[in-house]
Design a protein that fits this description.
The protein is mainly beta. The chain has four domains: about 80 residues, no CATH class; about 90 residues, Sandwich (Immunoglobulin-like), CATH 2.60.40; about 120 residues, no CATH class; about 110 residues, no CATH class. The protein contains one helix and 33 strands. The strands form eight sheets. It has a seven-stranded antiparallel β-sheet, with no helix packed on it. Strands 11-16-15-14-13-12-18 form a seven-stranded antiparallel β-sheet, with no helix packed on it. It starts with a strand and ends in a 33-residue tail after the last strand.
Length: about 525
């Protein structure tokens, strides 16, 4: 303990005119801490100001009325300002020219209490109600069913906004792609985008049927917005076909019950080629196996052999990293092996779920597997038809009709004993002419391809289809008779083993959202 002392003089007075005795010192003792403060004689002080935020001001507008206020009907004056209600929000200083004002508070329609967050100070407590309409029924609701003015709606475009009757808070609900509507834990419902019918329940627990979890909302202030889709008829001249059989909105379902589906998955495997090595995949019966480089360029098929039935790939020995044109590839290389399963669609749901009628032979990852619709034509095969001859072939106006122009030739080709040979792999849908340039030589002409080869009556004619590396057709030399002359022509048509199909693309009007959009079309068949 620190001890501090104070010394003070002590005097004693005596009678008469004698002198004062000497001063007597007295000591005082203090225990604990002694604080000593001092300041300079010239110290001055500046004024200090503190700001304290005013609490929200509550005004009971209808102290003797139990009915709720009709939204949008409240106008009152206080403190020299006029306050107007708009969907539960109070505005002041509303401009008569722009109709804009300053939001300063809110009003609880059920209790009639206005809460101001910003207000002038030092004002009198007199409130002048200019307008306030009340009602005694139909103010709030916990269920709502309505229909939009138009349909169908664009998926996930519906938005609903409500105002709670208990606390005047604004709550928004939105619909997802499946039509389910949710928002802030109290909005639950669904929308049928085809009919535009909306059903809503306002509750913290939609499974509670007692009503204890219901949240009342102001019926008059429920608003919504949605995108209604409309279709405009397309010109037949623009489409190139009669649109009478097309859907009015241009949308065609690509998955329907009873249609054929192709379920496929492409797996990728990083690889470093080793001459003579055999790679066995985890699955067999691939539809396609290919090797590509880092730029997506395919490796030459001569550099490896595949057994799709067993699911293997064997590198050549030696193996060269080149493409089909002997250009060097850019490592690293990747093997793409695709499996496909054709089946029948049994069910299509609006959620996008598809059911099919036969099990998959493989265990395929759901996030990588694709489903394609298939257009089936049944049994098809290539053929030759419309065979005829002409004595004269006009180079300026070639005859590509299916009937001869002018006289036929005396010379003929023996189709009975030497029919034209055609395969599904090589044939195309085309119109052909064999135009003789001498008694034994002729040009092979196709309407769209032009002159693609030359032939002779002394050798078999078999022009190669570059897409498949097999002949378009084969005409045997033994079938040619004599008597052909320069200018004679043989006309015939061929059909491929493919069926006819129109591909029409519908583009929805509006701003583009992607830089590149594409589709893949694959031709499938069970016989070559």
């Amino acid at each position: 303990m620190a001890t501090y002392g104070r010394l003070a003089p002590r005097t004693r007075s005596t009678g008469g005119g004698g002198s004062n005795p000497p001063a007597e010192l007295k000591q005082e003792i203090f225990g604990g801490t002694l604080m000593v403060r001092a300041q300079a004689a010239g110290t001055t002080y500046e004024p200090q100001t503190d700001s304290v935020g005013a609490p929200p001001l509550e005004i009971d507008l209808l102290p003797h009325v139990a009915d709720p206020i009709v939204p949008g009907s409240l106008i009152f004056q206080w403190g020299g300002e006029t306050y107007i209600d708009r969907s539960g929000v109070l505005f002041r200083a509303v401009s008569t020219s722009t109709n804009a004002g300053t939001a300063v508070g809110a009003v609880d329609y059920a209790t009639g209490i206005a809460t101001l967050q910003s207000y002038p100070g030092g004002q009198a407590g007199v409130v002048n109600r200019l307008a306030a309409l009340t009602e005694n029924g139909g103010f709030s609701t916990t269920r709502l069913t309505f229909r939009t003015p138009g349909a169908p709606l664009r998926p996930a475009s519906l938005q609903v906004t409500v105002i709670r009757a208990d606390n005047s808070s604004i709550v928004t609900g939105t619909a997802d792609l499946n039509g389910n509507i949710t928002g802030s834990g109290i909005i639950h419902g669904e929308v049928d985008i085809q009919s535009g019918i909306v059903r809503l329940v306002f509750s913290t627990n939609p499974d509670d049927l007692t009503g204890a979890s219901d949240v009342p909302v102001i019926a008059l202030l429920v608003t919504y917005n949605a995108v209604v889709q409309t279709s405009m008829p397309m010109s037949a001249d623009l489409l190139g076909l009669d649109p009478v059989r097309l859907p009015a909105d241009g949308r065609v379902p690509i998955y329907r019950e009873g249609d054929v589906l192709v379920i496929h998955h492409t797996a990728e495997h990083a690889v470093v080629p080793v001459a003579g090595q055999t790679i066995t995949f985890d699955r067999a019966y691939q539809a396609d196996i290919e090797v590509i480089d880092s730029n997506g360029v395919a490796m030459s098929s001569a550099q490896y052999n595949t057994d799709r039935k067993l699911g293997t790939l064997t590198w050549a020995d030696p193996v060269l990293l080149v493409d089909a044109e002997d250009n060097m590839l850019t490592p690293p290389l990747t093997i793409r092996e695709r499996v496909e399963h054709m089946t029948v669609c049994t069910e299509v749901q609006i959620t996008g779920a598809i059911s099919f009628g036969s099990p998959l032979p493989w265990d395929l990852p759901a996030d990588e597997t694709r489903v394609s619709s298939a257009v089936t034509w049944g049994d098809l095969q290539a053929r030759v038809y419309r065979w005829f001859t002409q004595q004269t072939w006009s180079q300026g106006a070639p005859n590509w009709s299916d009937t001869p122009i002018g006289n036929a030739t005396t010379a003929q080709y023996n189709q009975l004993n030497y029919p034209i040979e055609i395969t599904n792999m090589g044939a195309i849908a085309g119109k052909w002419a064999l135009v003789f340039t001498s008694p034994t030589s002729f040009n092979v002409v196709e309407q769209q391809l032009g002159v693609i080869a030359t032939g002779s009556t002394s050798t078999d004619c078999s022009p190669i289809n570059p897409a498949t590396s097999v002949p378009y057709f084969v005409i045997r030399a033994a079938g040619w008779g004599t008597g052909w002359a320069s200018g004679n022509a043989v006309r015939f048509n061929t059909d491929a083993c493919l069926g006819p199909m129109w591909v029409v693309r519908t583009v929805i009007s509006g701003q583009g959202t992607v830089d590149d959009d594409k589709m893949n079309l694959q031709i499938r068949g069970d016989a070559g």
